[in-house]
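so my prof wants the structure for this chain in the tokens format not the other one, which i didnt know existed until like an hour ago. anyway here's the sequence
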Amino acid sequence: MSADLSPEAKNEIADAIFNRQKIHAIKLYREATGQGLKEAKDFIETLTEELQEKSPEKFTVGTEKAGCGSAVFFLISGGGVLSWWFV
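here's what i got, hopefully its the right format
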């Protein structure tokens, strides 16, 4: 990481990257360094690649995107079909 970042800023940026919050990581980097948007974006993209090589296991957590919304949809649609079937 960049030498002009505090250890706290480095950790916060890395956490944002691990949590797939790229825009937040760019914002944090810009606030900490005063760099422009392009420079920050390039830095975060490079850092993301480095972190994925060093700690790929930290990027596998939370990759499943099916959430409660999908389950609720299928329960409601299934209930509707069953109620129609038995009427």
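also thought this was worth mentioning. The mean pLDDT is 81.
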